[in-house]
Amino acid sequence: MPNQGCYCVCLHPTNLFPLLQVQEISIDYTNCNTTAPQARLNYDPSQGNDLEPIPADRVSAKFSQSMKTAPQWGWAREQYNFSSGVTQDTNVCILSIDIPNDIKPPILFYYRLTNFYQNHRRYVKSVDIQQLKGNVRTAADLSSGDCNPLDVAPNGKPYYPCGLIANSMFNDTFGNLTLDNAVQDANGNEINFYNMTVEGTSWAHEGDLYGKTKYKPDDVVPPPNWQEQYPNGTYGDSLPNLHTWEQFQVWMRTAGLPTFSKLYQRNDNDVLRQGTYRLKIYDRTMPPTILCSTTKLTCSRLPRREVQGHQVHSHLDPHRHGWQEPVPRHCLPCRWRALHSARCCVPRRASHQA
């Protein structure tokens, strides 16, 4: 998928809401492997820094204190191990980010795409609800449904999950934030990384829309863009559990605007300590033709990718309160979906819910 950096999806006017303090950094890492210099995978103080400053127009930051060093980047190659056991030589974008002050949780990490039309009519319809609920859908069932052109594989087996939305799922992988130099926590313990989790990234009860499938692995085929992560392009011994796969659920909640951010990971408990952090992004570029479902549908160019990190210091977590990503910056925070401003917010029902 195209790369991008860390973003805050929601900014709140401080003059209207003085208790909401947002700190954020967003980095556009599109074409990192062709624009940034080649670098070492891991920081080695004895060999010096081989990263270069990221162009200023690719970075946006807001912290309580000024950053001492501008964000830097480089690229390298590394073997990435999928959970299926497949190993793939992958481009890695390396970002170096100076966090100038301690930031209290929650820390929310988003990826952002631009010029990606998840709201296109054919794209939104390209899904089979019953299949996502776990029911067995035969090749004949899918052929007469809405998953076309990604309903049945050339060998006659159904794609699982079928359709354009699932096939185009964002597939860059983000590592942990690692410190160039370890810092100490309140108890004097050394900290050299900042852990984030994908748990809690989907909406409450969103998993209820998906069920553990009744298919057997041999009954189905992974979507084309998924096949490289499985041995011989087949599922092997097990199938993904869509009921518990939160990143899949977040992707399937299609956005209403061509520029959107989706929550990738979070940390609700730990302070992000001041320091210089490195982030590895395993860059797997998605083919640009995924929206070509009819002869009259124009293919979009590859969306620009960014990573987006943001911290909200308040009792209101915009993700937890059901805002469809992205929320325009002039939207007012609200505690219930019913209070969304029709003028500026995208109602939840405006986007397809699988």
Features:
single chain, 354 residues, mainly beta, seven-stranded antiparallel beta sheet, five-stranded antiparallel beta sheet, 6 helices, 12 strands, 25% strand, disordered N terminus, disordered C terminus
Briefly, what is this?
By secondary structure, the chain is mainly β. 8% of the residues lie in helices and 25% in strands.
Distance between the termini: 21 Å
Shape: elongated
Indicate the mean pLDDT. 79
Give unreliable regions as ranges: 1-19, 287-302, 312-354
Radius of gyration: 21 Å
| Helical amount | under 10%
Description:
The chain has 354 residues and is mainly β. It has a domain at 21-118 and 163-197 and 250-327. The protein is 8% helix and 25% strand. It has helices at residues 32-35, 121-125, 129-132, 139-143, 164-167, 246-252; strands at 21-28, 52-53, 59-62, 72-81, 87-99, 107-114, 173-174, 177-184, 190-194, 260-267, 275-283, 304-313. The strands form 2 sheets. Strands 2, 4, 5, 7, 8, 9 and 11 form a 7-stranded antiparallel beta sheet that branches. It starts with 20 loop residues before the first strand and ends in a 41-residue tail after the last strand. The relative contact order is 0.24.
Set down the secondary structure blueprint.
Elements: E1 21-28, H1 32-35, E2 52-53, E3 59-62, E4 72-81, E5 87-99, E6 107-114, H2 121-125, H3 129-132, H4 139-143, H5 164-167, E7 173-174, E8 177-184, E9 190-194, H6 246-252, E10 260-267, E11 275-283, E12 304-313
Antiparallel strand pairs: 1-3, 1-12, 2-4, 4-5, 5-11, 6-10, 6-12, 7-11, 8-9, 8-11
